[in-house]
Write a structure and sequence with these properties.
With 420 residues, the protein is of the alpha+beta class. Helix content is 35%, strand content 20%. The protein has three domains: 152 residues, DNA methylase specificity domains (Adenine-n6-DNA-methyltransferase TaqI, Chain A, domain 2, Alpha-Beta Complex), CATH 3.90.220.20; 107 residues, Helix Hairpins, CATH 1.10.287.1120; 138 residues, DNA methylase specificity domains (Adenine-n6-DNA-methyltransferase TaqI, Chain A, domain 2), CATH 3.90.220.20. Strand 13 and strand 14 form a beta hairpin. Helix 2 packs across helix 11.
């Protein structure tokens, strides 16, 4: 029997089953204001929909408030919608007791909370929330309680809400298992790529060549005909200032050294363009290397363009004849990055690295023809590995889209969960 449908009156949802209704959030949801206990840990509402103590995910990489003004208590089972990141899927049900920032909407609900959670995520994925954007910051929108309470929600009968939730969770568990398998394959490939790079830049391409102790802890052995050179004799710190109309550059681990306008176009994002003090920015030329704030975790970046970059960064120019692309790969090898990290007194994300840190890590110097051979090999090999990784990431994207479509079809009643 074909289910009778009707117009929901909601542009994003289209038709819904005739017996379903719609209702504003303020009539079935309630904004909570729980007190905070001094022993509460901080809870975060992540964009993947998990609402949990930060310590359950990771300890580092978070920004911590010095004054916790307006923090609120959160209990297991509370429905939480992030007031700024809800549009990106930061909507879930807490699994922990703790405290959260005022940016979190902590809600009670007279309907099935998990159904409303899935419905809210669907509303986010259909970009309904983006229509609420008030320009408070890039890549966010206002999903405050003031707006959530006035939105119209699709409400099936209670028993059907329960069936929908059970079906969606079963389907999502299966999809998540497939995604976890693909993600594991990606991580294996990335680890393989790291090992290929390290092996090539520190051992060369000939497995039968005689080896010797390198003289530095971060390499152990290297080909006996290679030299080990103090970094300060291989590269020097350039303080050459901006020349003429040098374009403003930015350092990105994703794209390397590119213009700020190019970065904004690629990321579809806005960054604040400097208009004062740029005469003190540093001139950059092709094959210069840049030490940026992110070099602590991702190595140095090689420029392939001319321009200028913020004076906070270190610009390195070769003092000897080299093949720049060999050192591009060397400076991206995990063993080199680890050695660079060990030059610091403390470890944190965004560690400020200087030329003095760089100078503490001696560098291998293969013969020029070997530098070229290694660079060419890694260019080809890593392109091959990256192509496989990209294919796997496309699989993840397809699975993620399928998961969203399953949730949409059932929370809007386009498909009906069979009655057992």
């Amino acid at each position: 029997m074909v289910r009778e449908m009707k117009d929901s009156g909601l542009e994003w949802a289209g038709v819904i089953p005739a017996e379903w209704t719609t209702n504003k959030g303020k009539y079935f949801m309630q904004l909570l204001a729980r007190p905070v206990d001094e022993n509460d840990g901080v809870i975060t509402c992540f964009r993947d929909g998990e609402v949990t103590l930060r310590s359950n995910r990771r300890e580092e990489g978070f920004t911590f408030a010095t004054v916790e003004a307006g923090y609120q208590g959160i209990e297991p089972g509370d429905l939480v919608v992030h007031g700024m990141d809800g549009f990106a899927g930061a909507i879930g049900i807490s699994d922990s007791r703790g405290k959260g920032t005022p940016a979190l909407n902590v809600l009670d609900c007279s309907e099935n909370k998990k159904y409303i959670m899935y419905l809210l995520r669907t509303m986010a994925h259909t970009e309904l929330f983006m229509a609420l954007a008030t320009g408070i910051r890039v890549r966010t929108c206002d999903t405050s309680w003031k707006k959530l309470r006035e939105l119209d929600y699709i409400i099936p009968p209670t028993t059907e809400q329960e069936r929908i939730v059970a079906f969606i969770e079963k389907q999502c568990t299966e999809i998540d298992a497939l995604m976890a398998d693909v993600q594991a394959q990606i991580e294996t490939l990335e680890q393989y790529k790291r090992s290929v790079i390290t092996e090539a830049v520190t051992k060369g391409l000939n497995p039968n060549v005689p080896m010797k102790d390198s003289g530095t802890a971060w390499i152990d052995t290297m080909p006996s005909h290679w030299a080990l050179i103090p970094a300060k004799y291989m590269f020097h710190n350039s303080d050459l200032r901006r020349i003429g109309d040098d374009v403003l550059l930015t350092s990105s681990q994703k794209y390397g050294i590119i213009s700020q306008t190019d970065y904004m176009e690629r990321e579809n994002a806005k960054i604040v363009l400097a208009n004062k003090g740029i005469e003190d920015w540093k001139h950059v030329e092709p094959y210069d290397f840049i030490i940026s704030l992110r070099s602590f975790q991702g190595g140095l970046e090689m420029s392939e363009t001319t321009g200028c970059i913020t004076w906070h960064y270190v610009v390195l120019k070769a003092s000897r004849t080299i093949v720049p692309k060999y050192y591009k790969w060397l400076f991206k090898s995990q063993s080199y990055i680890t050695a660079l990290q060990r030059t610091c007194n403390f470890i944190r994300d965004g560690q400020d690295l200087r030329f003095s840190n760089f100078s503490q890590v001696p560098l291998p110097e293969p013969p020029i023809e070997e530098q070229q051979a290694i660079a060419s090999y890694l260019d080809a090999k890593c392109t091959e590995i990256d192509a496989i990784i990209d294919g796997k990431r496309q699989q993840l994207a397809v699975l993620e889209d399928y998961k969203k479509s399953v949730i949409f079809e059932y929370v809007t009643g386009k498909k009906e969960v069979p009655v057992a």
